[in-house]
Every structure is written in structure tokens, then in C-alpha cells.
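Sample intake sheet
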Amino acid sequence: MNIGAIARVSGLTTEAIRYYEGIGLLPAAKRGANGYRVYSGVDIARLIFLRQARKVGFTIDQCRQLRNLYENPRRKSATVHALVANKLVEVEQHIHELENMRRVLSELISACSNDEQAGCAIIDSLAGSAASDHLGKAKT
């Protein structure tokens, strides 16, 4: 199977497949007589596995760890569990950070008079009162 076909089957782009090969996440494909990459069913399974891992947020390094576990018949499920549990903690921390951002943005929107005047509570808040005072003095 050539790279275009495996891209369609795996749901990845040809660029992603080449990138994964380039960084060693996917073993280098065999080459046909014409010099084109030739992929196997094992490669399809690896790529689908990697696509799914990336889809749920695993980094390239985490995908490498997962791929190694995926291909190791002597793996311990506890190792896989720990890796995924750590990822869940990362995701929960990110959600917390996003919730804080949402709260701040909502407060900024609430503070805005949303009119035709130049004064803007959002700009003032983002600049900080000391920065706003300094800018005002620089213009005079």
C-alpha cells in the first residue's frame, strides 16, 4: 500500500505519516522497485493507534511511550494505566486553567461599557492601571 492509500485508511495526512517516520515514531517504510514507500497492515494498525492517541491529547513523546507499550507483548497494564492517569491529571489541570481564563474574560466583558467612547475598561485592565497612567503621561 502506498502512502496516499495508507493516509486514507489511517485518517492521517501524508505529511503526518512522513513526519512520524522522520522522528522514528513509525519505522521507515520499505521501498518498492519504483522507490515509493510501501506500507503493510502492521503499519496501518500503528498509524491508527497513533492517530487515536494524538486525538485524546497525548504528546509525541507520550505517543512514543504508548507505542512501545502497544508493541510489547510483555507490557504491564499498570504501566499503561499510570501513563494514562498522568495524562488525565494534565488534562484536568488544563481544564482548570481554561476555566480561570473564561472567568477572567467574562469579568472583562462585564466591565466593558460597550459604547462608542474611547475609554475601555478591558484595555485598562489588560494594561494595568500603572501602565495606563504612564501611557497617558507620555502623550502630554
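Comment: The mean pLDDT is 92. The beta strands are 30-31, 37-38.
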